[in-house]
From TrEMBL:
SUPFAM superfamilies: RmlC-like cupins (SSF51182). It holds the Pfam family Cupin_2. Residues 1-23 are annotated as: Disordered. Residues 40-93 form the Cupin type-2 domain. It comes from the Bacteria. This is Cupin domain-containing protein. Residues 10-21 have a biased composition (Basic and acidic residues).
């Protein structure tokens, strides 16, 4: 039997992660999160994550460095961070973006560290 569960999340009341991300709707194999009005600052330390991330920039500008290659992210840009790739972000101008992660970042502590 197919899963007929509908999940709706009100972003105004979403739980927040330790890095400021808002956790939005999530399923068994993918989840969404919102980075809202992230402030400019130095690059975040490089990390490797146990999930793939696809993102879409809504407003502002940021630099994404993946395995030594840097790209500029601006409104209407989308990107992919492969599972296990070393990467970091540097916010250049107040930045808002939505990301989807697979498997879900917030499950089993994948978003920690």
């Amino acid at each position: 039997m197919a899963d007929t569960t509908i999940i709706k999340v009100d972003g105004n009341h979403s739980p927040k992660g330790k890095d400021g991300q808002k956790y939005l709707a999530n399923g068994r194999t993918v989840s969404m999160r919102l980075w809202e009005k992230e402030t400019p600052g130095p690059a975040k330390p490089p990390v490797r994550r146990d999930y793939e991330t696809v993102g879409y920039a809504i407003a502002g500008r940021a630099e994404l460095t993946i395995e030594g290659q840097t790209v500029l992210l601006e409104a209407a840009n989308s990107w992919v961070v492969p599972k296990g790739a070393e990467h970091s972000y540097r916010i250049l101008e107040e930045f808002t973006a939505v990301e989807a992660t697979s498997p879900p970042a917030e499950v089993h502590g994948r978003d920690k560290g």
